[in-house]
From TrEMBL:
<feature type="domain" description="Aminoglycoside phosphotransferase">
    <location>
        <begin position="138"/>
        <end position="234"/>
    </location>
</feature>
<dbReference type="InterPro" id="IPR047175">
    <property type="entry name" value="CotS-like"/>
</dbReference>
<dbReference type="Pfam" id="PF01636">
    <property type="entry name" value="APH"/>
</dbReference>
<dbReference type="InterPro" id="IPR011009">
    <property type="entry name" value="Kinase-like_dom_sf"/>
</dbReference>
<protein>
    <submittedName>
        <fullName>Phosphotransferase</fullName>
    </submittedName>
</protein>
<dbReference type="InterPro" id="IPR002575">
    <property type="entry name" value="Aminoglycoside_PTrfase"/>
</dbReference>
Length: 329
């Protein structure tokens, strides 16, 4: 029999890892060959039966919510996502304060999904649209279990935190540039507030984190949407706004390129979302995370952040000017 092995990259010490391995071997009906950590509380587990993903949750509620929600998605016809293995369901796996679910492993393609490719950007949007079509049907079922999503309030809090971090950010950004980012934010938030009543309601269950790493292309070239940690109830445009913000750097911050995607063209038909497109959410998010995690002491971690903030500044400035023309026109 193949001997159990471990991969302890980024794991907090050998003892903790060995305890997890020992615990799992008692709970799982298969022989474990290898455990490899992917990120915090997420592991790939190789067994003599089949590999699976071990994903941790901070509470029983969050664990059951994701298990139930993904099951609901699949039953309603959205099958391009993961599902939970029927292992140790009652009681669930519980190790050192974390509830763990076992997910079917999606064997990845040799060509990973990336926002750098036009075909991937389009396919990602089509997948989110399909997700919204199903999650709209589930909204009433989950409305009492999920928090409402408040886009403007979330961004207001993000802006406040960025202002608090100015004492550190000022050592990396020119004063005038930092002031302009904040001016765009205030202009955006004010415009969003003043135009809120003009919108129709398109409420769905939002994914909430449409980053490229939450889309996986499998070895049969099918695209899957994963990780529902941030699901909430809100307008579908909130997911599209996040998607637009993530792909705009690959489009050289060209508004006309954004409008080539049918789902994103809708964002340019109301003042509410024209204002929202100008909010520098990625800049504030990444700087706030950088300072919270003290990454500013590591040059290799600062390079992509400075590229995002400084090298793209002029193109983003032209983009905001184009948005203002649209609004005034």
């Amino acid at each position: 029999m193949k001997k159990a092995a471990t991969s302890k990259d980024n794991i907090k010490g050998d003892d903790e890892h060995n305890r997890l391995l020992s615990y799992l071997q008692k709970q799982i009906p298969w022989t474990i060959w290898e455990i490899k950590q992917i990120r915090q509380n997420v592991f790939k587990v190789e067994t003599d039966h089949e590999p699976f993903i071990l994903k941790g949750f901070r509470s029983f509620h969050k664990f059951k919510l994701q298990e139930t929600f993904t099951s609901s998605l699949i039953k309603e016809g959205f099958v391009r996502t993961y599902s939970f293995l029927p292992l140790a369901k009652d009681p669930p796996l519980f190790f050192e304060g974390i509830y763990f679910g076992c997910l079917f492993y999606i064997s990845p393609s040799e060509e990973p999904f990336t926002y750098q490719k036009e075909i991937d950007r389009k396919e990602g949007l089509d997948l989110i649209e399909k997700f919204h079509h199903i999650s709209k049907k589930l909204k009433d079922r989950y409305v009492t279990l999920l928090p409402p999503y408040h886009q403007r309030e979330k961004w207001r809090i993000r802006t406040v935190q960025f202002k608090k971090n100015k004492s550190i950010v000022k050592y990396f950004l020119p004063k005038e540039m930092m002031a302009e980012y904040l001016a765009w934010a205030e202009w955006s938030l004010t415009g969003m507030r003043e135009n809120e009543d003009s919108l129709e309601t398109n409420q769905v269950v939002l994914h909430g984190d449409v980053a490229h790493h939450n889309m996986i292309r499998d070895d049969r070239n099918q695209l899957f949407l994963i990780d529902f940690d941030l699901i909430s109830i809100g307008q579908k445009e909130s997911d599209y706004l996040q998607y637009a913000n993530r792909i705009l750097p690959t489009l050289d911050w060209e508004l006309n390129e954004l409008e080539k995607f049918p789902q994103l063209k809708e964002l340019t038909t109301s003042k509410q979302y024209l204002y929202a497109l100008s909010f520098p959410t990625d800049v504030f998010r990444e700087w706030n995370r950088c300072i919270r995690e003290r990454n500013y002491i590591f040059p290799e971690k600062m390079r992509p952040l400075l590229s995002l903030t400084i090298e793209q500044f002029q193109k983003r400035k032209l983009f905001v000017e184009e948005l203002k023309k649209r609004i005034d026109g």
